[in-house]
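To: structure desk
From: M.T.
Subject: fold request, one chain
Message: Could you run this one when you get a chance? Sequence is below, nothing fancy, just the single chain.
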Amino acid sequence: MTFTLHVDGPAWRRHTESVRDSLRAAIRGEVGLARLGDLVPVAKGNGYGLGLQRLADEATRLGVDRLAVGTVFEVPEVAERFHGDILVLSPWDPRDTVAEQAWQALRSQVYAPRVIRTVSDVQIAKQLPSALPAGSRIVLEGITSMRRFGMLEPDLLAVVGNEGFQRGLAEGHIRIEGLALHLPLAMPEVHHVSATKLPRGTSARVIEVQGWSKTWRAALEELMRAQIPVGDTANSLWVSHLTDEELRSVRGLEPDATVHARVGTRLWLGDGAALSAQGTILAVHPVGRRFAVGYRQRKAASDGLLLVVGGGTSHGVAMAAPTPAASLRQRAIAAGTGALEATGRSRSPFQWGDKLLWFAEPPHMQVSMLWLPDSTLREGMANGLRSPAVGDTLDCRVRHTTALFDAVLDDA
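Reply: Done. Structure tokens follow.
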């Protein structure tokens, strides 16, 4: 294999189980009742580098009843391996015509009743009864300080008070599964201030969830006053990016709500030591100083080895997103990296021993060409390393959410 992800299966599964147990304890407290909520593993995109089907299998092993995917296009792949409810996080909107074709195709599938749509637009929500197949399950999404998708509080209340929406509920055409709240990673300003007296030190995220929960509870009470059946699952909060302590706070503030904690990165990638990306050395060429190589005929700065390694742009190697640098140090590093790249020098994510190697030129689609100077080679061999050979592997620092591996090798 040329570019692989090696998984220490026992360590990785111990980690996922510990996250599950920790979240369950935070959500359910000492009561431990499943009706109080659970974690909802997120399996989306490239499956965090591990693959969607593998994550679906692991969600089954973890004993959860719900799984979240990013888009409708990901549903078929996980539905074959996971047999609980599947929440689609991207909002359903028939104006997205390509996605709507996928939704239409899903209607005829045996797993269609298990799929839950997220509805985030007020006008679309008011059209629901006539736009969806009978028995459709939905969560409505409130807009949080994340400011990506969702309805404002007055819009949410307008949807619930809409005559057509209420008729759809009463006739069983649609079924509400709760309120979705996507919160930011950084601590937000408080956009939804609750009238409830909150304990000192309550986080802004918890205050925001509690404010939305009050709004949602009022909406459900209005439906019940109108004698509209809402079902046992309607008073549910589907939340993201809350710490265990914040989940405990929400549990205490909203004891009657069912809290589902959507979790992805923390669950799948939280134990970095259990996951190792590796590129296989495919060729080794001795080169002399000023020796030209590659498409662009760049010249070696010194004597050494040219290593051709599996792992290129098609695998996500050296494909960087805009930097999230916030501190002066992070900005200085980003500026320095950019200055080096402007001169044609770029550090690769591959390492030999503890040394990151330089790209000989930008990575190709499926391989990378790396410099290993004689000085670095001699230093490494003096410390017990042997000279690189075809078939050896180099560790690679990779962003798992953008990586595509030729194989995932699980040591289970």
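Reply (cont.): The longest strand covers residues 275-287. Let me know if you need anything else for the meeting.
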